[in-house]
Amino acid sequence: MPTRVLSRAKERLGGALLLVLGLLLFWLTWGQVARTGQFNVGGAVMGPTGTVLGLALLLMPGYRAERAARGEDPAAYVGFDALTTRWRVVLALCIAATVLHLALLYNGLTPFVA
Q: Is residue 28 part of a domain?
């Protein structure tokens, strides 16, 4: 069964939604920390991840589309092997942004959000 590649418009729409959701989770997490001094770890992790992934999907095609554009069969790759180098860098940026965000939250270094 061939792998279906999403249209660029659908990828960008998904990227825009992820970006907005990620920024919303940043805002909610920082507001919660400012009000109560506590935060939801799930929101704190998903905020930076959604933001980075959303930006990546807005700026470049998905890994399946990249593989298909090179003439490769995206279905031939499974799991981490399916990611192109560019998307592995995006994954590393997601992890780095999340770790940095959690470190800032645990140390109380967040901007004031009303």
A: yes
Whole-model pTM? Answer: 0.86
Digit-by-digit pLDDT tens for the chain (114 residues) are 556 767 889 999 999 999 999 999 999 998 888 888 889 999 999 999 999 999 999 999 988 888 888 888 888 888 888 899 999 999 999 999 999 999 999 888 776 655
Number of domains in the chain: 1
**One-letter-per-residue 3-state SS of the chain:** CCCCCCCHHHHHHHHHHHHHHHHHHHHHHHHHHHHHCCCCHHHHHHHHHHHHHHHHHHHCCCHHHHHHHCCCCHHHCCHHHHCCHHHHHHHHHHHHHHHHHHHHHHCCCCCCCC
Domain assignment of residue 77, yes or no: yes
